[in-house]
Amino acid sequence: MNIKLPIINQIEDLVASVPGWSPPDQLFALFNLVFLTQIEGDIIELGSWCGRSASVLGLSAKLTGCSKVYCVDLFPTGADWRKNADGTYSFSVNIDGQHHGAYEDQTVSAEPFERDIAPIYEKYNGVLDVFIETMNNSGLKDIVIPFKGTLDMFTQQASKDFKCKLAFVDGDHSYDAVCKDISNIEQFLVVGGWICFDDAFSTYAGVNQAITEKIINSARYEHCQQMTRKLFVARRR
Question: What is the pTM of this model?
């Protein structure tokens, strides 16, 4: 990578072949949060898919030289997906004998599944394979660390002194799940640290309600700013 290129161009080159949905301008905002938030702590990403946003978070962490990026995802294989009776798709992953489902309340319609998701499994067994390949190709494998599981599972195995300066939340979009994610992240988020919520105040009522109740109406957060489908907020206490 040519480090003389402007960062936005580096980001565009970095994610050009990585499947995902976050556009470069939103990834640029994530990059800047990491780069400019010079406080102690690592980064948690919840919902990583093939590593599009994770690679940008990792690039910023690499340039600042002070953080790791922990990417928590169920990382489904092709065999984990099922077609529902109405033609939509969901998946369920077995981890240590327990089933963890996704896209159950709000399923994936046939058209986006066949356009964006199915082609991945024509080449790879699972999205974790794509994720690892992405980090290897980007030179970020020592900085960006995948965790196959839930945020609950990650929280249980994290050390007591683990600190987070940025959490990017793009997991289960139901109200209960987002509330639980906020609670888990608050165990580690340092004062001055950031949470970025994806798909905020767009089409997911559960996400909107959880953010309103647990973040916007809370005295614990400040600097709340919406950027298209992403909302950024800083912990004040």
Answer: 0.93
Collect all residues with Cβ–Cβ distance below 8 Å to 186 and sequence separation of at least 6. 220, 235
Structural domain boundaries in the chain: 7-75+127-235, 77-125
CATH code for the part of the protein at 7-75+127-235: 3.40.50.150
Q: Which two tokens stand for residue 212?
A: 């309103």
Q: How many other β-carbons are positioned within 10 Å of the β-carbon of residue 44?
A: 29
> pLDDT digit of tens for each residue in the chain (237 aa)?
555 788 899 999 999 999 988 889 899 999 999 999 889 999 999 999 999 999 999 999 999 987 899 999 999 999 999 999 999 999 999 998 889 988 887 889 999 999 999 999 999 999 999 999 999 999 999 999 999 999 999 999 999 899 999 999 998 888 999 999 999 999 999 999 999 999 899 888 989 999 999 999 999 999 999 988 899 999 998
